[in-house]
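Handout, page 2. Input:
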Amino acid sequence: MNGLSWKDGDVYRWAWNESEYNKRKDLANLYWCESQIAIVRGDFLEDTFWSGGCQSRCFKKDVVQEMLSLTYLGNINDYTPCRKEDQAMYDDKDFLNLTHANNRGEYYLKVGAVKSKEKMIKVTKRNALKLRYKLESAKRALEWELDKLKNVNELDYAYGIEDVSLHDNSYLDEDFYLLNLGD
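Output:
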């Protein structure tokens, strides 16, 4: 296998190699119903798009290197299921994401992985920046809405932002005094 790991549970991202791609490129759906994530099971490399056995594309061990370009991701047996959100606390090298178009949430954490303080600090800083951007945007939007209320005689268009009632009456109407409009 020319140095290719082939143990049950080995996980690869795969694509057609240049030769196979050139043979297949005129086909309408080169990767139709294929996740391009595959797991070694016995003598086969099985694509994970459909669950269970070779319901998706399967490659026999002896043709894999002739047909595919592979990127080794790890061995599933060295990982334990986790939540997507756990990636915020661990280095990417310890996190395995097997999510694809037909599977919206399959995440794994390497057994024995240690939380990364550096990663948690980075993610927390990103959160703070994202919230700052949202706050600044909300401040600008609030000023724009308040300016429109200062010139109600010129108001000829209105729209409701997300989660704002468009009905004649709303529970929010009781809190208009919080806008300090003097009316």
